[in-house]
Design brief:
Length: about 200
């Protein structure tokens, strides 16, 4: 398969590239690195990416920024970080990308454990991740000939230095184990599913 991987230079993206790259052709896309670059907050950038790459068998997104901070101090602008980047960026990838996926192909987005297990300072992440999973379920009803799923990972073992204080009491997962869920989404048969890696 020809797979376009957006967020390929991140921790999850590198693990997904290693897992799926054993069997498929990976087109690595990053914000500033990779074979191609894209700004997922801009529809014109996403369209230009797919025009350059052409038809693919799968779209995998492991990208998206969020805001972590106390709700009492959070501003609308801070909340919009997650809305514009992780949520609308991935939704736009799916809306535009669906027209570039071959029949029988798939789209895989990334949400996260905070959909179901909220934490202090994580209101933005919980809202955004929940919306991504909801979009996937809704889109699966209408997409014809293309599957769509999301992967919802817990905190990564590799990211504990940065995010560990937010996730006290959570069991982490190595990126290599999280990558297997992306393999299930791309190489499996399910659609409208949230693959949880907890």
């Amino acid at each position: 398969m020809k797979i376009i991987l957006i967020g390929a230079t991140g921790t999850i993206g590198r693990a997904v590239a290693q897992e799926l790259g054993q069997r498929h052709d990976i087109i690595a896309v990053g914000k500033s690195r990779g074979e191609h670059q894209v700004d997922v907050t801009r529809s014109d950038s996403i369209r230009a990416l797919f025009e350059r790459v052409g038809k693919v068998d799968a779209i995998v997104s492991t990208t998206g920024s969020l805001h972590f901070g106390p709700l009492a101090e959070m501003t609308a602008e801070q909340f919009k970080i997650g809305l514009h980047d992780k949520l609308l960026g991935q939704v736009d990838l799916a809306l535009i990308g669906q027209h570039y996926v071959n029949e029988g192909g798939s789209i895989t987005l990334t949400s996260g454990i905070l959909t179901d297990e909220p934490i202090r300072y994580g209101a933005n992440a919980s809202a955004v991740n929940s919306a991504i999973d909801g979009f996937v379920r809704g889109a699966a009803v209408e997409l014809r000939g293309v599957r769509i799923n999301s992967v919802s990972p817990t905190v990564l073992t590799e990211s504990l230095d940065a995010y560990g204080p937010y996730f006290q009491g959570f069991e982490s997962a190595p990126a290599s184990r999280v990558a297997l869920a992306y393999s299930r989404s791309v190489e499996g048969a399910q659609t409208g599913r949230v693959f949880r890696v907890w």
